[in-house]
Each structure stands twice: as C-alpha cells, then as structure tokens.
UniProtKB/TrEMBL annotation:
Pfam families: BPD_transp_1 (PF00528), OppC_N (PF12911). Its main location: membrane. Residues 114-311 form the ABC transmembrane type-1 domain. InterPro entries: BP-dependent_transpt_permease (IPR050366), MetI-like (IPR000515), MetI-like_sf (IPR035906), OppC_N (IPR025966). The lineage of its organism: Bacteria, Bacillati, Actinomycetota, Actinomycetes, Pseudonocardiales. It is a multi-pass membrane protein. The keyword Membrane applies. One of its GO terms (biological process) is transmembrane transport. This is Peptide ABC transporter permease. One of its GO terms (cellular component) is plasma membrane. The chain crosses the membrane at residues 53-74, 118-144, 156-174, 180-199, 243-268, 288-314.
C-alpha cells in the first residue's frame, strides 16, 4: 500500500514550482523572432507527452474511468446475484474470473467495484486538498499567530496513528446504523480526509509563503487589493502545481487504504461493492480458492500503480529542479 506521506518528499519543492513561472524561456514562432514566453504548464505538457510511463498511466486511468461510469458496457451480469450451487467455482467461459463464496460473478463485481473504489479515491483526494489547501493558504499568507495556531492543529492530526484513527472514526459512524452505499462511502471519505489533510496543508503553505514574496503579490497589495482577492486570484493559481502532484499520488493511496480498511472490517461493506470488500470476503479461502483474491487484488494493484506513475510523471514535469 502506498503511504500518503511519501508525497511530502515528492512535492516538497513548493516554492520552486512558483518561481519557475518567472524563469520560463521564451519560445519563437520563427527563427530570430521572439514569441510568447512558455508557462510552467505548457512546458510540463510538452515534457509529459514524451514520457511513455505517463501515456501508459493515462490510458489505464481513462479505461478505468469508462468502466466506472458505464459498467453495463462490460458486463450484463448483476454483481449481487447469488447462486450457491456455483460457490467458489474457478474461472470458466461463463465467468471469466470465477465465482465467490456466495456464488456471485467475480468479474461482474470487479467491474462494478471500480465505481466505488474510484469514488472513494477521487472524493477523498478532493476533500483532503480542499481542507488542507484552504488552511495552508490562510496560514501561509497571514502568518503570525494564525500560522502558528493552524500549524499546531495540523501537527496534532498528523500525530494520530492512521489505522487507529480510522478505526475510531469509522466505528463511531457505524454505531449510527448507516446502511446505504453512498453514506458508507461518505463515512470513509470523511475519515480519510480528517486524517490526511495536514500533509496537503504543509505543501500549499510552503508554496504560499514563497508566492507571497513575489512581485505580483506585492503589486496587488500596493494597488489596494483585498487579502481574499490576492489569495484566491493571484496566489492560488500559482500554488496549485505542488498540491496537484500530491493529490494525484494520494488518489491511488486512498484506493489502497480503502481496501485495507475494508479488510479490517471497518471500511465499505454490502451493499457497496468495492475491491476492498472483495478482498476482505476472500481472506478465509485463499488456499482453497485463490482466484477470489487474485483478480480484485490484481486490479487494485494495477490501479494504484497507474496513479503513482501518473503522479511521478507530473512531479518530474512540474519540478524545475529535475529538468
């Protein structure tokens, strides 16, 4: 499982991302004629298009996205249909991945599980970046006692053991008797965001402190722009690069973490179908029916690897130190 804290080292050059905008080399439409200066994003896109790993990762992620949005295109079998006479049958022409303990088609459950697993990853990453990014921008721009207070609060949350914190939060939610699939996903997403936002806060805080010293921020302040206009109109666009790298890697990490929580019995559960739920259901039958674990775990590994590859490629393209 990918530890979400690895992004601290992989995206800690927040100030470098911002200052790279000022050092972009000009391009020329024709020899001897100056053109518009290339931005950080255009340079990054030119670099990404030449990276095979980036292309492979994007193809895999786009395919998984299509599967999540339109699972009926890939299977006509009801993932919750049970036939105990087919319990633990191996892969065959009728069921490519075989059947699980309850006689459910594993291939159909893998296809429909893509939606819930990706939903946890995407929603968890967005909420984490939204919470941590907002707090980091405020702390980096205003500084002083506010920065100290928010940083200390972030350190408190960072000190919580992830698995223990997840067990406490999710068990507290489970006692409310929530049973719908979307509510279960919301519980897991909220728990993930509460335990991981300090990392994104530190990343964007570092970028905000660097951006605050740039001339365009000083000029906006001299012209009488309000702090909120400076933060969201001028600083935020130039602080997105490092947190984008972190969010990309975090998305894959959250998919793996959801599987871990489900394996421990505190994550998603029926009626939600996810790869983590399938792996949890197969843990007692690995020796007698290894296909119950092999296929959902293989798809999970491929997905996490694709997002990690994408994050690494984006990091290398956006970080001027690596050019």
């Amino acid at each position: 499982m990918t530890d979400p804290t690895i992004a601290t080292q992989q995206a800690d050059a927040g100030g470098a991302y911002v200052t790279a905008l000022e050092h972009a080399e000009p391009t020329t439409g024709q020899p001897g004629r100056p053109g518009k200066p290339r931005s950080l994003w255009s340079d990054a896109w030119r670099d990404l298009r030449r990276r095979p790993l980036f292309i492979i990762a994007v193809v895999v992620i786009l395919f998984l996205t299509v599967v999540a949005l339109f699972p009926q295109w890939f299977t006509s079998v009801d993932p919750n249909h049970r036939d105990l006479t087919r319990s633990r049958q191996p892969p065959s022409g009728d069921a490519w991945f075989g059947y699980d303990v309850q006689g459910q088609d594993i291939y159909a459950r893998v296809v429909y599980g893509t939606r819930w697993s990706l939903l946890v990853g995407v929603a968890g990453s967005l909420l984490t970046v939204l919470i941590g990014g907002t707090i980091g921008l405020l702390a980096g721009y205003f500084g002083g006692w506010l920065d100290g207070l928010l940083s200390r609060v972030g350190e408190v949350f960072s000190g919580l053991p992830f698995v223990l914190g997840g067990i406490v939060i999710l068990n507290a939610f489970r006692s409310t008797g929530v049973d719908s699939a979307l509510a279960l996903v919301g519980m897991v997403v909220l728990a993930l965001a509460l335990l991981t936002w300090p990392i994104s806060m530190r990343i964007i805080r570092s970028a905000a402190i660097s951006a605050k010293q740039q001339d365009y921020v000083k000029a906006a302040r001299a012209l009488g722009a309000s702090p909120w206009r400076i933060i969201f109109r001028h600083m935020l666009p130039n602080c997105l690069a490092p947190v984008l790298v972190y969010a990309t890697i975090l998305l894959g990490s959250f998919i793996a973490i959801e599987a871990t929580l489900s394996f421990l019995g505190i994550g998603l559960r029926d009626p939600a179908v996810s790869w983590g739920v399938m792996i949890s259901d197969s843990r007692n039958y690995i020796r007698v029916a290894p296909h119950l674990l092999l296929f959902p775990a293989g798809i999970l590994t491929l997905t996490v690897l694709a997002f990690v590859m994408l994050g690494d490629a984006v990091r290398d393209a956006l970080d001027p130190k690596l050019r």
